[in-house]
Design brief:
The protein is α+β, with helices and mostly antiparallel strands. About 30% of the residues lie in helices and about 30% in strands.
């Protein structure tokens, strides 16, 4: 059973907030992003379920939007995570893509969907086809412009086409240098070793 559901941007700023039970202050969401960053530093990855001061944060990320559910109850975490996945599926059905801009453009429909999909924190209707019978308001869909070829942008394809060599070869040179400062008595005052690996690649 969820106490509240939030949609946040990448900085943790609320785009949409729906309070279902009133047992958690809405300011509790301010701890989500710092808590997520702490967990990423400790665990190396962001955990989908986090708890602090009796509040459990369950989240799902879609592009530049965080979908977060908060609860104080001893809730089945999988139920709420599944609800967030269904919420993502419904938004995709209505808006085609889940991005910060599409959330801002369709906030009226989103509040209607949140009211239909959850009642007092309990998931209700989550099937897009059924919801489309209730909520028929036209949504604003982002215009997705076709991307130019990679050869034009050179974003990924950094290697030109048509390069061919008679032999596939890779040359590695390891270059090391030692710098040392010694006083007249033979004591080492400072020393350092610097190294570099130089590579030449001839691969077709």
């Amino acid at each position: 059973m969820a106490s509240a559901v939030f949609l946040l941007d990448l900085k943790g700023k609320p785009l949409i907030a729906r309070d279902y039970r009133g047992d958690i202050p809405l300011t509790a969401i301010d701890r989500f992003m710092p808590l997520l960053q702490e967990r990423e530093e400790e665990e190396g990855t962001g955990l989908p379920v986090m708890t602090e001061n009796g509040v459990t944060y369950l989240h799902l990320r879609e592009k530049d939007v965080y979908m977060v559910a908060l609860t104080r109850k001893n809730t089945n975490a999988m139920t709420l995570l599944q609800f967030l996945h269904h919420l993502s599926k419904v938004f995709t059905e209505y808006f085609k893509t889940i991005e910060e801009e599409s959330i801002r453009d369709n906030f009226v429909i989103i509040y209607e969907l949140l009211d239909e999909m959850m009642d007092y924190g309990v998931p209700q209707i989550t099937e897009p086809k059924i919801l489309q019978e209730y909520i028929t308001q036209e949504s604003h869909m982002l215009e997705i412009t076709p991307r130019p070829p990679m050869a034009v942008t050179n974003a990924v394809s950094w290697r030109s086409e048509g390069i061919s060599y008679r032999k596939n070869e890779v040359f590695l040179d390891v270059v090391e240098s030692i710098n040392m400062l010694v006083n007249p008595t033979g004591n080492v005052l400072s020393s350092e070793i610097q190294g570099a690996i130089k590579m030449k690649v001839y691969l077709s």
